[in-house]
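Checklist before submission:
- one chain only
- standard amino acids only
- sequence pasted in full

Submission:
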Amino acid sequence: MIQQLVQRLVAAGLSQQDAALAVLGSDPMDLVLHMEQVWDQANIWNEPGGPAGPARRALWASGAFSPVPPTAGPAWDHIGYSYVLENTRAVQILRRVVKEFRGGEGLGIPQRATSRWLDATEAMLFGGANLVSPWLSTSSFRPDPEGVRRGIYWRVLGVDLAFGTEANAPAVFDKAAAANTGFVPLFEELLFELWQAMSNLRNTSGVNQADDDRIFRIAEQLGYQLRVRRQQGMLAREELAAATVLGWVHLTLSTNTPVIVDLRAEASSPGERLKLIGERVGLAPHTRSGSFLAMATELSLLLRTLEAGYVSGPQFAWLLYAQAQPPGTGPAPAGAQPLGAFSRRVITEWSAASGKDLKKAVVPARVNVVAKPSAPASR
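Returned file contents:
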């Protein structure tokens, strides 16, 4: 949601940097109201008029980012986007940043823009104001927002973060029995098959190594696994909260923003900035943070395409590996776009992050035939 808001401001005429600074310097209440509008517009349960009542709609009208224009695509990033960003350990590192600035002057005196960032970060990431508790999907019943997100990563992707608590103790969260534990091996095989298909596109002679039928079967199974966790709008609110929080982190690290300057962490890439911040507060990020940060947006697009069920047959496998529609193929499904460049980035960065060479053969995963695929997810 954060990245989408920045692009909306860019479309309205701001530069990319000015749009980022406008969001990072905004009042957390305005961001809460904006997120509520995004949630209402998504209307996950197709309720007449949306899920919100007139009181909340009247409050939204006072927000700095109101009204939210209609959108045909997803209104926020996929949970996979949040997972790879959180796996950098950026949230725990920024927790220490907030704690140090609030507790003393060890990090220096924050400039005005950094103070604004601190207010919003404390509220959004760590529940510094009661008004954001529903936004973080937290309550007295589930008080730890990181634990809530870990639970979603486990249920949807079958993975946990690569580290424990900030104190390096084992993380405790509700680990549901119903989880997509076979998702990652199957996804990695898909990436291998996509690389083979990409390599074939460059060949003018020789054996065609693209296996469109295999790509379709894997995509079908992955899409089914993702949609199973979406029944009746399940986890949608939690996904939006996670995407917003991690989108804030992503935007903070995207350029040499005021807080980056105050932390003396200026660098040429988000991964380097996070490393320098970690050194300032004594908590090292994941060693492959650069790769996680580099593929987050592209991974979101790829997973959204799989979940939407656009690859409904071998004839549409090219959507996942071509940069443009190949000659002789039928029209793409409405709303779909070729993801060749995005998939290539995911293959490269996922290989670097996992230490697996996905451009070489992997152990084939078992693919179940989905007799009747679920209806494509609209968001």
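Reviewer check: The two ends are 13 Å apart (CA to CA).
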